[in-house]
Amino acid sequence: MTIGTIGTGQAVPVAGAAGDNPADARVDLKALYHETQIDAVLAELDAALIGLKPVKRRIREIAAYLLVDKARRTLGLTATPPTLHMAFTGNPGTGKTTVALRMASILHRLGYVRKGHLVSVTRDDLVGQYIGHTAPKTKEVLKRAMGGVLFIDEAYYLYRPENEKDYGQEAIEILLQVMENQREDLVVILAGYGDRMETFFSANPGFRSRIAHHIDFPDYEDAELVAITETLAAAEGYRFDDGARAALVDYVTARRRRPSFANARSMRNAFDRARLRQAMRLFEADGPVDQDALRTITAAEIRASRVFSD
Amino acid sequence: MRITQGAFSFLPDLTDEQIAAQIEYALAHGWAVSLEFTDDPHPRHTYWDMWGIPMFDLKDAAGVMGELKACRAAHPDSYIRLSAFDSTRGWETVRLAFMVHRPKEEVAYRLQRTEGPGRVQHYSVVRA
């Protein structure tokens, strides 16, 4: 483990020179906290992601844990690196992938992973087509992920109980081995929908015991979804006028009742369709358009949605 | 007889930490690292056996070190060479190569002189 060598600052005992009684040595946690700039990372996370309170609290806990672990290491208390493999569960569109992306940089800032890149894979990248194809493929992916975070989206597809000759099992075994033996080299994050991950874990108890942090992503509240949509729109250089904002609130309520509701993803799709309708309206209207007209989405564009039709 | 080939070969053998640091250097430059092994390190023997394919898109030395460990376990009595390939246009060549493993009992070579027509001397390196 090379905590001190990657520019996040080495923890320094503030009292007690070499040869002193180790019980008297002190580590200044606050100084360590400022040195690693964890507050900046966490503030950034708070600002960038709307809602997700339990997730943010969990990340804060992990940050504190790593900080204390670093302090313990300085005083020679721990030998083995902490396990940081995680499982993200939650309904579609609750921000699992987005948080995973940020997790890589958080862990890097905290000095837990050396490089801080994220390798995002699904079953296809790990499991081969024929006998003897899976192991090299999985190892290749693991090698690329070393020093960073390996994010396995929809991890339950790795395990196909209906086919006992499925090569997924081979990939699982290699993964488990690396997760156990090379904890300091990479962090594995499994993500998927709650109920199916539950089935996956009960079929593969090895995974459950090797994953220390199970983080559940709650569904967004209506107000949060509206705020998310506005953030999305602002990032693309659009804005909603007052009528559209009211329509958006109604839209969220109506959309939630319909099948295949996917939280923030549904809102992104709704925004994309509203953009189409806005473009059509501007196109069909005669005369030149100004910047404001190009930016603004009105109530009509939201209300035209199929969601309101029944 | 100590075989000297590639970079660093007149130095004492690199430790694993030093090898990892060299790999980090190569990866930081965007070079693809690969491993090769042979039981015949003759200077004219250019094409050694490859240990897997070159490792592209790596970010960290740990992946290469894992392969090196596996290669050493499989071929303890071979020479293992690590090379770093630069694919940048204009270079497109190996930028760094050095030996990372040698067998306990090294191979020995000697110089052989052959007399040709008209007292011409031909030299070759042969196994001792």
Automatic annotation (TrEMBL), chain A:
InterPro entries: AAA+_ATPase, AAA_lid_6, ATPase_AAA_core, CbxX/CfqX_mono, CbxX/CfxQ, CbxX/CfxQ_RuBisCO_ESX, P-loop_NTPase
Record SUPFAM superfamilies: P-loop containing nucleoside triphosphate hydrolases
Domain (AAA+ ATPase): residue spans on this chain: 82-221
Annotated keywords: ATP-binding, Nucleotide-binding
Membrane-traversing stretches: none
PANTHER family, sorted: AAA-TYPE ATPASE FAMILY PROTEIN / ANKYRIN REPEAT FAMILY PROTEIN, AAA-TYPE ATPASE FAMILY PROTEIN _ ANKYRIN REPEAT FAMILY PROTEIN
Family label: Belongs to the CbxX/CfxQ family.
Full protein name: CbbX protein
Species for this entry: Rhodoplanes tepidamans
Automatic annotation (TrEMBL), chain B:
Matching InterPro entries: RuBisCO_ssu, RuBisCO_ssu_dom, RuBisCO_ssu_sf
Keywords from the named record: Calvin cycle, Carbon dioxide fixation
Domain annotation Ribulose bisphosphate carboxylase small subunit: ranges: 4-103
Pfam families cross-referenced by the UniProt entry: RuBisCO_small
SUPFAM superfamilies (alphabetical): RuBisCO, small subunit (SSF55239)
The keyword Iron is assigned to this record: no
Family recorded in the similarity comment: Belongs to the RuBisCO small chain family.
Subunit and interaction comment: Heterohexadecamer of 8 large and 8 small subunits.
Remarks, miscellaneous: The basic functional RuBisCO is composed of a large chain homodimer in a 'head-to-tail' conformation. In form I RuBisCO this homodimer is arranged in a barrel-like tetramer with the small subunits forming a tetrameric 'cap' on each end of the 'barrel'.
HAMAP family linked: RuBisCO_S_bact
Purpose of the protein: RuBisCO catalyzes two reactions: the carboxylation of D-ribulose 1,5-bisphosphate, the primary event in carbon dioxide fixation, as well as the oxidative fragmentation of the pentose substrate. Both reactions occur simultaneously and in competition at the same active site. Although the small subunit is not catalytic it is essential for maximal activity.
Protein name (database record): Ribulose bisphosphate carboxylase small subunit
